[in-house]
Amino acid sequence: MQKTRFYFVYDGRLYRKRKETHSFESSSIVCDLRICDITVCGDRRSNFRITTPAGHYFVFSAPDAHDADRWVSTLEDQARQSLHNQGIAGVPERVKEVMRANPECADCGHCSPDWVSINLGVLLCVECAFIHHTLGPHISIPKCLVTTTECWTEPALQVLHDIGNANSNALWEYLASPRTKPTPSASHEIKEQWIYAKYVCHHFIDRYLTRSLSDDPSKYVFNAAARGNNLDIVRGIAGGGNVRWRQSSSGASALHMAASEGHPATCQLLVYLNADPCVINSKLQTPGDVATDRATQELSLIHI
Question: Are 75 and 138 in contact (CB under 8 A)?
Fold first, then answer.
């Protein structure tokens, strides 16, 4: 049985709704045209294809080849105009590489997520990102990866590379059954309950995670920061670690260690995890004072 769907473009994104009379709020996002390749199909010139960075694609039929060319041109113009309105010429290839490495939303599996939680190091779909907003910045800080240039810096992309959806879910969904995880079509309430249980209540992490850490969880975070190991920092946080823990002998914090060892990505992650950039050690030095290069000095002074 064939089903009719209605598509429209708004702010550089392609949306779908079941009925023409349905409201914008009831529509679902198909893909972000600003990061997609839009081409006429070579085998059938009357068809055109929209391909996401993750490799998912959607094929549409036009009445003829001329009409297909017009659709491609119009959709590309819409994507360019949306980026122009944001003051952006284009999305860097390095950002698209991160999207290719994380083809599905970390929380519901929606294809081609284009939002990111910069302190959890995962990619999210727009609906799950909206739910993350409600958790508060002490839990998650969601940003649009397509238009937020703050997420395009090398340290920010390095955090996403080091953590990513697969590594993150191996930690936060350790005990979860695949059958209980929401699907992209699940209701907003179901996704909200899942995300709250996952990141706030820690329902699905390894119950023996704290015991498996070689040190006290806060000390584990401290040592991971010295190594520049961003995934271990998140693992320590999940195990109950505190990024503001300080070494008794030197008064140094995890941010001091990351800055002194020259790990700019780790500095950025720690600040987003609520590390204090103004804390001083026993020598009255801030993380910026002990930074070994300009990059870590600047990042250790970031405020959200």
Answer: no
Q: Which amino acid is at 153?
A: T
Q: Which of 18-27, 91-100, 227-236 has the lowest mean pLDDT?
A: 18-27
Nearest one of 29, 158, 155 to 97, comparing CA atoms = 158
